[in-house]
Each structure stands twice: as C-alpha cells, then as structure tokens.
C-alpha cells in the first residue's frame, strides 16, 4: 500500500476516533445537562407550579364572585358621597380583615356629592305638540333643568361643526352631539376615548354659544334604550347648562326626525343637585414583604360606581379581584418578597380624589413603589396586561409571557395603566403602571348604565382575572423590575 494512501487511512482513522470521542463527549454532556437542569429551568418549573397553585385556588375555591354578589346585591350602586358608598367602605374593610391581611386601614378623602334626583324625563315634540318619550339620563355633575326645559334642537357631530354654525342657529336651543362610536376600531376603548369629549365638555361648548343645554349620544356601539351616564365638566367662566345623555336608539330617532322637521323641540326635565362634599375613604389592605418590605406593589380598583345600575363590571369586579389577588397568594402558601397592597379607591368616576390622595400620601411618606396594577375594564376573560414603563422594563415583563400563556393572560403590551394609579407616576415614580387587560368587546354595552348588574358577570371569567393579577404580583414580588 503506498505511503500516502496509508497515511490518509491513518489520518482518517484518527479523525474518526476524534469524531467518535467528540460525539461521545457531547452525548455525555447532554446527558449531564438533562440530569442536572440549569438554574433558569429550575426557576421556570418552580414558577410554573406556583402559578398553577394560584389558579387552582381561584377556580376551585375563589371568593371574588361571592364577594361581588354581596357588594352589588346588598349594597348596590355606590356613587361618591352616598350612604351606599360608606357602606361599601365598611364592607371592604371588614372583608380584608376577615381575609387575614397583615394590616387593613382607611385613608380619609373628601369627595363630591352629586344626587340624580327623580327619574329624568325627555320628550321629542313635533307638529301639533305631539310628543314622543325617549330614554334619557342626566350626566354626572349636571345642574337641574329647574322644571321643564323646552327648546329647539341643533345637531352636530363635533366641536368644529358647532364652531362653524352661526350664533342664530345655536342660541336658545339644545345642542345635540350625535357622534357615534367608530366601530371600525378593534378595541372599543379607543372608540370610547375618541367620542368622550362631547360628553365631558359638550355642555361648556354649548353654553359658550348661548345654548340652553346639551344632549349627548350615549358612548356605546350598542343599539338599545339604555342611556349611559358619565362625568361632565363645567367652566367657571361659562354659564352652567344641563347635560343629558340619550340612548343610541333615541339619538337615532331624534336625528331622523330633525331631518324631516328642523323646527321640532325637545323637552327635558331633571332634578339633579350638587350637595356639600362628604368625608369618605380609600380602603387599603396590606401583606408585608418578607425580603424587601419597603418596596411596594399596589393592586386596586375603584369602589365607587355610577348610580343607575349596581356597578358590577364598573368597577365591582376590579375591587373584588384586587382583594382576591392577595388572598390567593396567602391561600397558595406564598409570602410575597415585596409588600403588596390592595387598594379600593374612592371617587374614580367623578373626581379621582381617592387616587390623588393615595399618591399624595405615598409621596409624603417617601414610599418606594415598584409597580401598580389596576383592574377597571370589567371582569371579562383575561388577555394580559397593558404596561406604562420604559422599554427595558416592558421587555423584562414580556419574558414572563410563557408562564402566563396557559391562562390566556400572556399579552404584555404598551398601554394605559389606569386612572387611579396614574397620579403615582408623578408622585413616586414607580417602574411600571399596569392595567389588567381583559376581553372588553361587551364592556361598553353596559358601561355606566342600569344594565351594569351582577348577572352580567361570569364567575369563571372573574376568578381567572383575579388569579392573573395574583400571578403577575407573584412574579413582580419575586424578581422585581
């Protein structure tokens, strides 16, 4: 055999031996790796089991639904300053004390006290004074009509349209704002935001032009006879005129009749009144952190509600889920490493006094807030969380998505945290403001209406939401941001 061939064979054998040895070494390495998981894999498995315990507790022994039943059925609507709002404060405190939190206390806050009065009456009056009664309700904070207020109507869809009208077309009339939801938007919350200025500022802009009142199309895409209330504003430099919401069916009917008869009139009667401010409270329950007790994670919803329904989805669900999130951690056997607070905020609907006071006290006490979570989008099926934070923080939270995915709560996206936790940003600069995100397609069908009642809440969806919030708190408390 020629030398060069023999040399090639020897070299080839050496390569084969080396390759075999390398393969065997690699196999042994893989075997060791499978026998001894990495620290990260161990941690993931530990966290996965922990979250499963939280969800098991929620689905098998959850208390959110029964708590909501009592809040909505026994106490009912809880407008700031009302006796029912005070009953809700007492109930919230007692419920958290019963749950065994380390500390439960109240934060005093002065709140507005607006009373709707007798049921409102609205009527479209056409030829020969023939009237058609339509569903209507006062907007929150409106002045009364001082008896029956009867006037012509001018329809607009924006403030720009109103501005373009001559004074004679507006003076002495009702301005009828008839801008509908933009149903092309996938997220109904975006449509609500785009339509909301006509409710908030409609009476101001109408009065600025000499109108006697504002009629506003309800902020919903639903076509029904439920008028939607909600807060409105006044300007001290402009006369106060009454503001009322028409149901979507009533708005469509009024618009059609105006096309046939531009001279028709509308008669409105409302007896609402604003009384002196009342003393009320935020309700706070706390579990002290085992390793970093000075770092705080807040989770909350707003205890007050509008007065037409029972305040079930808005925001009874957020309140019971926030309390439940802490209870679930305890029941599953976890002591959070950072201090966790459940806060039932007072007066989100018509003043945000509770959220502002919570932030003021946090700054005054020089508290360190890691994150704050708010549930105020209804108690529907979980989707994930909207986060206000820097990109690095959001990226870190997004790494937890695989742990949350089995529970359909893995969408970690940029978005609004919440109205009540928003003041914390300027006061104590938490690393993240987080909004619990659920499937809100049905939310604005009942939002701020008489239809916001306990029977509209699904038990499993509600309990899954509280567990999703507890799961995120577990991860935030363990790993920080």
From TrEMBL:
Q: Which residues form a coiled coil?
A: none
UniProt cross-references to Gene3D superfamilies, sorted A to Z: 3.50.30.30, Zn peptidases (3.40.630.10)
Localization recorded for this chain is:
Endoplasmic reticulum; Golgi apparatus; Lysosome; Secreted
- Record SUPFAM superfamilies: Zn-dependent exopeptidases (SSF53187)
Could you confirm whether the keyword ATP-binding appears in this record?
Answer: no
Where does the signal sequence lie? Answer: 1-25
Keywords noted in UniProt: Carboxypeptidase, Endoplasmic reticulum, Glycoprotein, Golgi apparatus, Hydrolase, Lysosome, Metal-binding, Metalloprotease, Protease, Secreted, Signal, Zinc, Zymogen
On the tree of life, the source organism's domain of life is: Bacteria
Domain Peptidase M28 residue range list: 282-467
Primary localization: endoplasmic reticulum
Q: Does the keyword Transmembrane helix apply?
A: no
Q: Which InterPro entries match?
A: CPQ, Peptidase_M28
* Assembly mode: Homodimer. The monomeric form is inactive while the homodimer is active.
What is this protein's name? Carboxypeptidase Q
Organism source for this protein? Answer: Hymenobacter frigidus
